[in-house]
Amino acid sequence: MEEKNMTALVSCFARAYHYKNNTCRIFCDSVAEKILREEEYQAIAFQMTNGIQFFCPGFVGTKEEALRRIVDHQLSPSVLGRSAFCEKALAKDVKEGCKQYLIFAAGYDTFAYRNEEDSLKVFEIDRKEMIADKQKRLNERCIDDSGVEFISCDFTQENWYNAVIHSNYRQDQISFSSLLGISYYLTKEEFRNMIKAIANMVCEGSRIAFDYPTEEEGKESKVNRELASAAKESMKDKYTKNEIEEILASQGFAVVEDLGDKEMTAQYFADYNAQTSDKMKAPVGVHYCLAVKKKGIDSPFRG
Questions:
Q1: Is residue 300 part of a domain?
Q2: How much is the mean pLDDT over the chain?
Q3: DSSP three-state, residue 146
Q4: What's the number of domains the chain is made of?
């Protein structure tokens, strides 16, 4: 497994494991396991199990119990929570007429291959190498990707947004954008510039959903930061709620919802926790934000 894809692979593994090993699910991803090759699934499971003393010092139990403990208490909470948060908001917007879904840093996201709404056009935006790898995996498993338009770009490069503007994306139609897992790996200036670029390419009424790290860092967040660093994908910044609100407001966005760990656990983990004695909760130190572009903001990218 290439280091540059490790974070995306582990996130995909977490979604696949949760779907495979539970009947009551926080987030239902029936395609993630197909994206992962069997040897990758087993390799990640092996690596995680062997690291049980790193994740849970003093743990005593079987290999299966060790893997379950790591997945449920370290890997899954943030991944499942943000996916559930985003797709719930997306579903509401689609019912209200949204026709375009932009997935920034799409990685191994599988929404497009579970989507049953023909009227919704999906754009997956990521690095050229990441897209090529994903398309190869889809082809290997005979998964239809005809409902997706892939757009290659690097968010750290200037004018990356031109790739989106010159695609079949329509700037005059309301869109929904997912920015899950992105804010961690950009500096505050880079994240601000990304929000600015998106604000300039979407019309009023369009929404964005993203998660972001806060100063209040819990155990799970610290371990995830260490894992990312080991995979040479260092997390760069943290934010206060006020900072996020200021960044969004400066680009014409208004916060619709901003949930911390307690609110996320209550809203998205309650049904699952009611079915098991081993409770799962959203990680401390991560917030989940939904924002809408307000009226009266002109886009310089439009003719």
A1: no
A2: 90
A3: coil
A4: 1
Domain assignment of residue 301, yes or no: no
Domain that holds residue 256: 3-293
Q: What is the CA radius of gyration of the chain?
A: 19
| Residues, the chain | 303
Sign of CA dihedral 46, 47, 48, 52: positive
Residue-wise pLDDT for 110-122, tens only, equals 999 999 999 999 9
Dmax (CA) for the chain in angstroms is 64
CATH code at position 107:
3.40.50.150
| Residue 70 domain flag | yes
Q: Which long-range contacts (CB under 8 A, 24 or more apart) does 54-58 make?
A: 54/223, 55/223
Distances (CA, A) of 227 to 48, 80, 125: 11, 18, 24
Beta bridge pairs of residue 175:
100
pLDDT at position 4 = 47
Quick check: is 298 in a domain? no
pLDDT digits (tens, 9 = 90+) for 163-185: 999 999 999 999 999 999 999 98
pTM to 2 decimals?
A: 0.90
